[in-house]
């Protein structure tokens, strides 16, 4: 298939920038594209978007794909409710609303009223509701808004009874929720200093914990805790359910280990006690009985366990021992602990008593993913969601007295799930490691290598990929496509050992796993190289970039989204420095060698026929700086041999992905599928 009309790309002149890393000189000719607001970069963005639009406009099926996406997306969906004071709170989206709306209701079968409608924040839906915290009696709620997908948070306070805002406004929050004092006088939150004009680019250091008292200006907020000697510590607050304890999470970058500090809020002044100061595991606070604290932890248990810690003696006592499955999360209700496990990357829920005895389980409808199980310690009920690749998120109520589960809300989507199948398979990676993957497709499809397929992966930061329904995936399946998700090393599907096996000098394992997944799909005739697209976002964008440079022969299309593609400079922008726990840093001589060996930007070679590529990013992504994608696109267009197109789609007024309005999501998915229709020859 020829695309000769795209051999002329927007001009991208070279600069003479050369960096020296530990004695080695590395050219960075497109450094000027890191100045994302310059007139030159703005012109380049406009020209690239125009070229991409020209290519996609030639796809006759594009409008039909978008129409079908809108139709399938247009169904009513709910979040799992939570009890906040006397009422329930839950999110609902009527279908195509850009942002889901927060409702409050006295009962789930009665009328509900709008508490916060983020669709009213902006005309185009680009201002999102990004954080939420009710006070202890449910009378007020602190809520955070973010604009254009940014990580920066601005906190406001709403009176629940009247659904009106107070005058309080707290700015420059990031990577922290809000935690109310038990008396409702105000809340704790964490923030950075005001960044000035470089808010979308400058590195974020010196996180600080503050207390905001209602009715006072932010300038009067009390500084509770800071560590100027550790500029890379992240500080996040929680207040115990009894209102007595301020629990402070102290983490360093994205490393899955943290410290726990506490302060007694019944004292006249806040004195921070370093309860668990060694960062010898990941600790999640579950609750307390007086000065006995309960934590989920990976300390000496890479797949997770539950312990208690006595505040006076600091003695740690095991409650739930590590099992063969990875412990995802735990909630305490009364004298029971609900433990959510990942069994080969799908959910299972066990019930334990405080003696560590497994006393039951909560049956799930099938192979899928649960969420929820939130609530107060002595609630009589809790709610959870269940979803799979062919099951839209269904909301269930679990009654503790009767130990029964009933469906509260079952969405109605215009598709027949009985026509599709999700099967879990296992393949062997380069070094002999057994890796799981779930492939979903329409029943009766010919597995003769002719079907188009999307292979999706992530493989990093202890993040697990588990089954979840998406209208976007459904439309791909209706187009005759196969959707495969590989659970690569670097994720959290099998605990911390699985995660560490895909980090730093072992990062190549992740790429080898993904390559082995592609080879499995081809060998088993699910698809063929000419029909296989690989897709991933953020760290998954790095995955796609690395694999397409290492094995361009293996795939028919590449879809790197908001990717980390310049592995020598990622740590210099926004929160990128935090990722060195997974990647390492080019500032270190040994780590530079690992990174340079696979950095997608630096491994593009002239004369190689790379697969058709559609890069997607946003003009002001302040999580993964868009300069990564800009430079990668310019370099790939420069070196590409042959006629395979190299396009970049740059979204305006958008960020890394969180909070993106529905209309923008649908438009991006439609363009991605239109691209695949053309380059994979889908009929």
Could you walk me through the main structural features you see in this protein, from its secondary elements to its overall organization?
The protein has 683 residues and is α+β, with helices and mostly antiparallel strands. Among the domains are: 4-70 and 415-680, Rossmann fold; 327-412. Helix content is 17%, strand content 35%. It has 10 helices and 39 strands. The strands form 9 sheets. The chain has an 8-stranded mixed beta sheet with strand order 32-33-35-34-36-37-38-39, sandwiched between helices. Strands 3, 4, 5, 6 and 7 form a 5-stranded antiparallel beta sheet that branches. A hairpin with a 4-residue loop joins strand 26 (346-353) and strand 27 (358-362). It is globular.
Q: Helical content, roughly?
A: 10-25%
Radius of gyration (CA) equals 25 Å
Strand order of the largest sheet: 32-33-35-34-36-37-38-39
Largest sheet: 8 strands, mixed
Net shape: globular
Query: Class of the domain at 4-70 and 415-680, according to the CATH hierarchy?
Result: Alpha Beta
Low-confidence regions: none
Straight-line N-to-C gap: 14 Å
- Briefly note the CATH topology name of the domain at 4-70 and 415-680: Rossmann fold
Could you tell me the number of beta strands?
39
How many H/I helical runs? 10
Q: Quickly give the structural class.
A: alpha+beta
Strand content: 25-35%
Task: Tell me which CATH architecture of the domain at 4-70 and 415-680 applies here.
Answer: 3-Layer(aba) Sandwich
The CATH homology group name of the domain at 4-70 and 415-680:
Alpha/Beta hydrolase fold, catalytic domain
Quote the average pLDDT. Answer: 95
């Amino acid at each position: 298939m020829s695309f000769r009309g795209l051999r002329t790309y927007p001009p991208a002149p070279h600069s003479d920038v050369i960096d020296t890393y530990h004695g080695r000189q590395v050219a960075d000719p497109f450094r000027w594209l890191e100045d994302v607001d310059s007139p030159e970069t703005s012109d380049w963005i406009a020209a690239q978007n125009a070229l991409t639009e020209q290519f996609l406009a030639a796809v006759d099926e594009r409008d039909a794909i978008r129409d079908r996406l809108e139709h399938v997306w247009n169904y009513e969906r709910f979040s799992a409710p939570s009890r906040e004071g006397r009422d329930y709170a839950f999110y609902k989206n009527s279908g195509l609303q850009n942002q889901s709306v927060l409702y409050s209701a006295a009962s789930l079968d009665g009328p509900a009223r709008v508490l916060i409608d983020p669709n009213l924040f902006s005309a185009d839906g680009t201002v999102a509701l990004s954080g939420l915290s009710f006070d202890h009696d449910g009378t007020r709620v602190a809520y955070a808004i973010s604009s254009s997908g940014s990580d920066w948070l601005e906190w406001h306070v709403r009176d629940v009874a009247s659904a009106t805002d107070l005058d309080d406004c707290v700015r420059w929050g990031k990577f922290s929720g809000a935690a109310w004092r038990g008396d409702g006088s105000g809340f704790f939150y964490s923030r950075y200093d005001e960044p000035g004009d470089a808010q979308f680019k400058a590195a974020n250091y010196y996180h600080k914990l503050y207390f905001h008292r209602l009715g006072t200006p932010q300038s009067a907020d009390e500084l509770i805790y800071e560590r100027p000697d550790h500029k890379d510590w992240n500080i996040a607050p929680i207040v115990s359910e009894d209102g007595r304890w301020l629990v402070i999470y102290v983490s360093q970058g994205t490393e899955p280990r943290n410290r726990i500090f506490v302060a007694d809020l019944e004292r006249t002044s806040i004195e921070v006690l370093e309860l668990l100061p060694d960062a010898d595991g990941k600790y999640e606070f579950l609750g307390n009985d007086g000065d006995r604290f309960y934590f989920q932890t990976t300390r000496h248990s890479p797949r997770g366990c539950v312990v208690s810690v006595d505040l006076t003696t600091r003695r740690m006592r095991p409650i739930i021992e590590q099992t063969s499955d990875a412990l995802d999360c735990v909630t305490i209700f009364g004298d029971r602990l609900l433990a959510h496990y990942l069994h080969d990357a799908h959910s299972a829920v066990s019930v334990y008593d405080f003696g560590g005895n497994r006393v039951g389980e909560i049956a799930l409808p099938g192979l899928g993913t649960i969420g929820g199980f939130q609530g107060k310690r002595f609630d009589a009920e809790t709610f959870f969601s269940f979803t799979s690749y062919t099951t839209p998120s269904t909301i269930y109520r679990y009654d503790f007295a009767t130990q029964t589960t009933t469906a509260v809300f079952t969405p109605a989507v215009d598709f027949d799930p009985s026509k599709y199948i999700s099967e879990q398979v296992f393949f062997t990676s380069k070094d002999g490691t057994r890796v799981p993957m779930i492939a979903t497709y329409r029943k009766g499809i010919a597995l003769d290598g002719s079907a188009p397929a999307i292979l999706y992966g992530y493989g990093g930061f202890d993040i697990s990929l588990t089954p979840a329904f998406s209208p976007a995936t459904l439309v791909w399946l209706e187009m005759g496509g196969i959707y495969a998700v590989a659970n690569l090393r670097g994720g959290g599907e099998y605990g911390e050992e699985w995660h560490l096996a895909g980090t730093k000098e072992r990062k190549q394992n992740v790429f080898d796993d993904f390559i082995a997944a592609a080879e499995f799909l081809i060998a088993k005739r699910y698809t063929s190289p000419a029909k296989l697209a690989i897709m991933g976002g953020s760290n998954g964008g790095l995955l796609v970039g690395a694999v397409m440079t290492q094995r361009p022969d293996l795939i028919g299309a590449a879809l790197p989204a908001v990717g980390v593609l310049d592995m020598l400079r990622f740590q210099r922008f926004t929160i990128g420095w935090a990722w060195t726990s997974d990647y390492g840093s080019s500032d270190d001589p040994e780590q530079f060698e690992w990174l340079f060996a696979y950095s997608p930007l630096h491994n593009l070679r002239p004369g190689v026929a790379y697969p058709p590529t559609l890069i997607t990013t946003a003009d002001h992504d302040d999580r993964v700086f868009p300069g990564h994608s800009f430079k990668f696109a310019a370099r790939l267009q420069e070196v590409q041999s042959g006629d395979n197109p190299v396009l970049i789609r740059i979204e305006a007024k958008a960020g890394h992905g969180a909070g993106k309005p529905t209309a923008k999501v649908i438009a991006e998915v439609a363009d991605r599928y239109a691209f695949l229709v053309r380059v994979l020859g889908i009929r």
